[in-house]
Amino acid sequence: MSERTIAINASDIKNKMNAIDFCLLCAFLHVGYQNPLGSWTLQPNILVLKVNGSCSQRALKCLHSAAGFMNGDDKDIFWKKDDKEKAQRGNSYLVKLEESLGGGNYSCHSSNGSLLNYTVVLIQEDFTKKRKILMETDLAEYLKCTTQNFEGAFRCSWIWDRRRVGKVALIRTGRGTDDECSPDASGQHWTCASTESHISCSVDDSGDGISCVDKQYCPFAEEKKKIFFTVYFSNKHFLLESYSKQFYVSEIVKPDKVTIRKVNQSMIELTYPGSWSSPHSFFPLTFQVLQSKHGCKNCENPCDASTGAKMPMADSSSACLFELENNSRTVCVRAKDALYDSQWSEWSHLSTD
Fold it and tell me: What's the 3-state SS for the chain?
């Protein structure tokens, strides 16, 4: 077992011991269990309890009608948490919450073992700003959203914390306050609709991104409202966290790479990415060109390694020709939307040797 694994296991044991000590302290001081700060239903049979780190409790019901009781008595109903039978009996089960513990899959059964009902309890912390499921990116954000053009499609991605990989539990996105989102049977495809937007989203097979399309987006009209995008993630510890981002499509545009073609010894041609919106006269790009007299055959990215000067070009609405400098051995080109201060594309490069 590696030192890293030992350290992680030791940390988990310490956290569990701290929670047990906290529970014993509550009992010793005769601190009464309070109700959670709040609760809401994420999906049918999935209950979210918002906690602040103090001792709290919440009652779950198995059946909402006495018609399901054997002989009108609920004493034969028994409960399981994560498939392990518990001592409590009856139609109600009291979930005790200590700090972030208490979440799980609670199921109730008849005397013969048949499943009667179940409730998955997820815990949403309100007492810490520290995030546990996703990691921050270099830009001090958790969600990175980009689009290749102005066609209404966009993708938001994230980086899992290596110790707490989770899954998408809920997506909420739209341009209004009344957007209703619903998943399909797989839970991987979501539709969010309102009077102002109609956005369909799919969780990527890789599990580290969501691809969406705003079906009411018009590329020729000014965006009056930003898209709000919120993802709820749950992990194996039944912890629930939400991450949000708001943006205009114009703010997250990042063109694909520019195509470079050598015409002759002194001229190259720059062509718009095939995925870029048209007509190009309405969606012009600005190009930036870097030329270097030094070759870089063994470099992974000669554009980053090159010391040549970056030369901004005028906006162009079509493919254009560009004259090479004398003794130029490497040409690098990137592009961005000419009308908005959005992201540059990745560099394209061409060896002129």
Answer: CCHHHHHHHHHHHHHHHHHHHHHHHHHHCCCCCECCCEEEEEECCEEEEEECCCCEEEEEECCCCHHHCECCECCCCEEEECCEEEEEECCEEEEEEECCECCEEEEEECCCCCEEEEEEEEEEECCCCCCCCECCCCCCCCCEEEECCCCCEEEEECCECCCCCEEEEEEEEECCCCCEEEECCCCCEEEEECCCCEEEEEECCCCCEEEEEECCCCCCCCCCCCEEEEEEEEECCCEEEEEEEEECHHHCECCCCCEEEEEECCEEEEECCCCCCCCCCCCCEEEEEEEECCCCCCCCCHHHHCCCCEEECCCECCCEEEECCCCCCEEEEEEEECCCCCCCCCCEEEECC
pTM: 0.80
Q: What is the pLDDT of residues 95-147, one digit of tens each?
A: 998 877 899 999 999 989 999 999 999 999 887 777 889 998 877 799 999 99
pLDDT tens sequence across 288-322: 888 877 666 656 667 764 444 455 555 565 677 77
Q: Using one digit for the tens of pLDDT, what is the confidence trace for 211-253?
A: 999 999 999 999 999 999 999 999 999 999 999 999 999 999 9
